[in-house]
Specification:
Layout lengths: L9 E3 H8 L3 H9 L5 E2 L9 E3 H15 L1 H8 L12 E4 L2 E4 L2 E2 H7 L2 H10 L12 H5 L9 H11 L2 H13 L10 H20 L9 H9 L6 H11 L7 H11 L4 H12 L7 H15 L2 H10 L17 H13 L4 H17 L5 H12 L5 H24 L18
Antiparallel strand pairs: 1-3, 2-3, 4-5, 5-6
Length: 420
């Protein structure tokens, strides 16, 4: 790899051509065909610089042509990109929604505003406290009548993904407009789905002018009006994260022409797994252990001696720390500096950092938030699901527009039939 390719976003013409094993003339042809983006730094062609990301993508395609089996084996394991998407970019340790820093958005925008950005590519002017028009228009439409009963089951069982899936199944058949898979119609359906899930989370239809965050705050922590801003920040930071397993699952279901209701149900099924959003329950158990022992370092050390993992730390995409977690924990520390639950989570994170040199990820931050605000049991996963619903709907919209079914081939490694 050329010097600086992993560090810089641009290469010189000589470096780019060297990476690809081509002449500079061929490089210029790739640029003219739109395969590599370039930027002028002087008056001559040789003075231009070329996007390292595009060069790397072309190099991977060449490798695939030389050894498709090897690339295929790694493509679904943090490997070669398999789908195009204009929703989320993860680069240089940051997350961007439609080119905007997700951490910055979480500090100034509501989940509904970010949903509008992800679903339409633009964000209308307005207050964080006032949902965009697409959400206000859905406020008069019906909510599943059994939502209060369903939410009661969810709180007792702590299985919020099941709670939300039940609500979606109950309402899908009452929403024939969901079969309209044009982009504008899907955005309207997404607004209805998000409102339905918010109702399921609190056991009642939200007020017409409330955002999801404000609705959750009014029912979950009615005496702490300031909690709405932190809840909104968490929801925004969970809105999307490129092709994680739940978003890829959502796209597969959407590619079959299923409605957004089915897409979100599929996303919830994947999110609930212990290697995805369900990991928040393992983080809760870890912090319960820390609370009981009153010795964070001792708990971490004991887990290491037993060969056990410490959930809620590290992320393959963020070797220097998950920016979502950093932002949420910093906001929590500023808002609740004296909270015992917050300090306990901070002490646990410090112990893991000292002993394992690992930093908290978003799963840990969501649990720390839920414990600090004293939200209902399992609320960390509920927040994760509510926020990520926005991304699932956005990915469904892209897949509907692509109008192709996702059907990869398997590399057969079993017994060969006789005669082959």
């Amino acid at each position: 790899m050329a010097k600086g390719m992993g560090e810089n976003r641009y290469l010189t013409a000589r470096e780019a051509a060297g990476e690809l094993g081509i002449s500079t003339a061929t490089l210029y042809a790739y640029v003219s065909r739109g395969l590599i983006r370039s930027e002028a730094t002087g008056g001559k062609r040789r003075d231009r610089r070329y996007r390292a990301e595009d060069v790397g993508r072309l190099r991977e395609r060449k490798e695939q042509r030389r050894d498709p089996a090897r690339v295929a084996r790694g493509a679904l394991d943090w490997g070669t990109p398999v789908l195009e998407s204009a929703i989320t970019l993860i680069a240089d340790g940051r997350v961007y929604y439609r080119g905007r820093d997700a951490v910055d958005l979480s500090g100034s925008c509501s989940l509904e505003q970010v949903a509008e950005l992800i679903w339409t590519g633009a964000m209308s002017q307005g207050s964080r406290e006032r949902p965009p028009e697409i959400f206000r228009a859905s406020a008069g439409e019906p909510i599943a009548p059994d939502s209060p009963r369903v939410v009661g089951e969810g709180i007792r069982n702590r299985i919020w993904t099941d709670t939300f899936a039940m609500a979606l199944h109950g309402s899908a058949e009452e929403d024939p407009a969901a079969y309209d898979l044009r982009a504008a119609a899907v955005a309207r359906t997404g607004a209805r789905i998000l409102r339905l899930l918010a109702a399921s989370a609190v056991g009642d239809a939200p007020d017409a002018g409330d955002t999801v965050a404000r609705s959750l705050q009014r029912r979950w922590v009615p005496r702490d009006t300031g909690a709405a801003g932190l809840i909104d920040r968490a929801l925004v930071l969970c809105a999307d994260h490129e092709l994680n397993v739940s978003s890829f699952t959502a796209r597969c279901v959407a590619s079959a022409g299923a409605t957004p209701y089915a897409v979100v149900v599929a996303g919830l099924a994947a999110l609930g797994g212990v290697k995805h959003g369900g990991n928040t329950e393992r983080v809760e158990a870890f912090l319960d252990e820390v609370e009981a022992a009153e010795d964070p370092e001792g708990v971490v050390a004991a887990r290491l001696r037993r060969g056990e993992s410490v959930p809620g730390f590290g992320h393959p995409l963020y070797p220097d720390g998950d920016p979502r977690s950093e932002a949420l924990l910093a906001a929590l520390a500023e808002a609740y500096p004296r909270s015992w639950a917050r300090r306990q989570a901070a002490d646990a994170a410090e112990a893991v950092g000292d002993l394992m040199d690992e930093r908290p990820n978003v799963d840990f931050a969501l649990v720390a938030l839920a414990r600090t605000l004293r939200l209902p049991p399992g609320a960390a996963l509920a927040l994760f699901a509510l926020g990520r619903t926005v991304g699932w709907v956005g990915h469904a919209m892209e897949q509907y527009q692509a109008d192709i079914i996702l059907r990869p081939r398997a590399l057969y490694v079993g017994e060969q039939p006789a005669g082959l």
